[in-house]
Write a structure and sequence with these properties.
32% helix
């Protein structure tokens, strides 16, 4: 991607950016899936041609699904992302599908502590759940604080 004039993001090694004349083109790659977006249609077309000359590619059209984000929709005020299926799968895997939602998932400045009658925690299971919650917090700012506390 650097050979094509793109700069690799410092915060996400799979994200590449290119900017010309006030317009931007963005490419994000995950294994064999990629999303190309931006406001420079000419550059997007050029990038697609360059990539297609080196890799077997299929253009799936407008983004509808990417890495657990189902229901990617465009509107006048922006792009809207939905992780409903991801949340339902997560609740099902953790046997919490019948839980009751609350407005504030954790009180501010909450301190976690061990309790004498607390059962043991399976570290790998906890870490796996924590990672899934971190991914969920990308589109659910309302749970980001609680997730950071338990992380």
């Amino acid at each position: 991607m650097r050979r094509f004039g793109y700069k690799q993001s410092n915060s996400d090694q799979t994200l590449f950016l290119e900017s010309q004349k006030g317009k931007i083109t963005v490419l994000i790659i995950y294994v064999d899936d990629m999303v190309i977006t931006g406001d420079d249609n000419d550059e997007i077309g050029r990038l697609q041609q360059q990539l297609a000359s080196e890799f077997e590619m299929k253009d799936l059209g407008d983004l509808k699904y990417f890495l657990g984000l189902r229901g990617v929709a465009r509107g006048r005020s922006g792009i809207f992302l939905c992780q409903r299926k991801y949340v339902l799968d997560l609740l099902t895997k953790t046997s919490l599908l019948d839980c009751r939602p609350i407005d504030t998932p954790i009180e501010e400045n909450h301190k976690l502590a061990e309790h004498p009658d607390q059962g043991s925690t399976y570290r790998a299971t906890y870490q796996r759940l924590d990672g899934r919650l971190i991914y969920l917090s990308h589109t659910r700012a309302d749970v980001a604080y609680a997730v950071s506390v338990v992380s």
